[in-house]
Amino acid sequence: MAIAKAERLMNLALCLLGTRRPLSKRELRESIEAYLEAGSDDSFNRMFERDKDDLRELGLVIETVENLDGEVGYLARRDSNRLPPITLDAEEAAALGLAAKVWQQARLAGAASGALQKLRAAGLPEDVDPYEAHGALEPHIPVHEAAFEPLMLACRDRRPVVFDYRKATAAHPETRQVEPWALECWRGHWYLAGWDRERGAERVFRLSRITGRVRSRAGRYTAEVPDVVTVRETVASWAGDIADRSALIRLRTGSGYPLRAKAVSVRELGDGWDELEIPYGHGLDAWLVEFGPDVVVLEPAELRADVVDRLRAVAKG
Q1: What is the pLDDT of residues 3-27, one digit of tens each?
Q2: Greatest CA span in the chain, whole angstroms?
Q3: How far is Cα 221 from Cα 85, in angstroms, rounded to an integer?
Q4: How far apart are CA 75 and CA 309, in angstroms?
Q5: Which of 111, 138, 172, 284 is the most buried (most CB within 10 A)?
Q6: Burial of 89 (0-12, 13-18, 19+ CB in 10 A)
Q7: What secondary structure letter does DSSP report for 180?
Q8: Which residues pair with 186 in a beta bridge?
């Protein structure tokens, strides 16, 4: 079966590359034996569409052209499918190999390996091994969330998606309709930036909080995709790394060392408690909740209320 499909794809590619004018489905079916053997028009159409998508996935640029009579034809122009000579020095090849080794998931690892093989065929220096180790440290980007792959493909193809999302302050997930823009890893967690259709605004979603399956939706984007999507900066501001105010908290003595490292001032209160002034930005409430009963928020009042809301959500499960 694999050999038959490979032969069929090769014949289709040769037909599309060898013609000077667009060929219709009918003409392609008459030119390729495997298509002639298709049992019905529906069977042929499904086979042809799959083959066309496979060739495009392999990198062949296939144009769809409609003539004056409204008939659709296909061709692959040689000038559109010819790559310029590729020259890579040892450092550039090493960078590509390092990037390929970052991805450890099966689907991504296969794509990275295939890309390097194509570069090798196109001019990667024979004396350079892109997989050779170039240091004691080897980077890994973990991707444990099932939502990563469908969201990555949706970002690439510019397809709207729908998923159930549970905020840290909510007891139950909510359905979100999103136009995905970009994915980025920050501090070991993956985040999606996109346009939330129901809220009519840009939002950032942590993938670990997506529950269930990511579903694709037909149609175009309704909001313009920005030239630069600042996922990391947005998440950093929500996580409290960008702070424009101060908060006053009580912290149990001998605990909360990360909070103490950020403290502007520390004052001993006695009875096993200290008073700390710490920078206050978006997301500080989520961080404080992690310290449980060792932290009490004194001010501001809105931060104290946010922490209480999060604790109640956790208690509800």
Answers
A1: 678 888 899 999 998 888 899 998 9
A2: 90
A3: 36
A4: 60
A5: 284
A6: exposed
A7: E
A8: 189
What pLDDT is recorded for position 80? 78
Q: HSE on the CB side for 204, CA within 13 Å? A: 19
* Structure tokens, 131: 């997989």
Q: Which amino acid makes up residue 299?
A: E
Residue of 96, 102, 101 lying closest to 124 (CA atoms): 96
Provide the mean pLDDT of the chain: 80
What CA–CA distances, in Å, run from 237 to 128, 282, 284?
Answer: 42, 6, 10
What's the rounded Cα separation, in Å, for the pair 106 and 86? 27
C-alpha–C-alpha distance, residues 196 and 237, integer Å: 19
Which residues are paired to 246 by β-bridges? 279
- Match 């794809």 to its residue by tokens: 9
pLDDT recorded at residue 165? 94
H helix intervals, the chain: 2-18, 25-31, 33-36, 41-57, 90-102, 106-122, 148-157, 231-238, 257-262, 284-289, 301-316
pLDDT at position 213 is 92
148 neighbors 154 (Cβ within 8 angstroms) = no
Long-range pairs for 256-259: beta carbons < 8 A, 24 or more residues apart: 256/291, 256/294, 256/295, 259/288, 259/291, 259/295
Residue 218 is which amino acid?
A: A
Burial class from Cβ neighbours inside 10 Å (0-12, 13-18, 19+) for residue 128 reads: middle
In contact, 260 and 278? CB cutoff 8 Å: no
Neighbours of 207 (CB within 10 A): 21
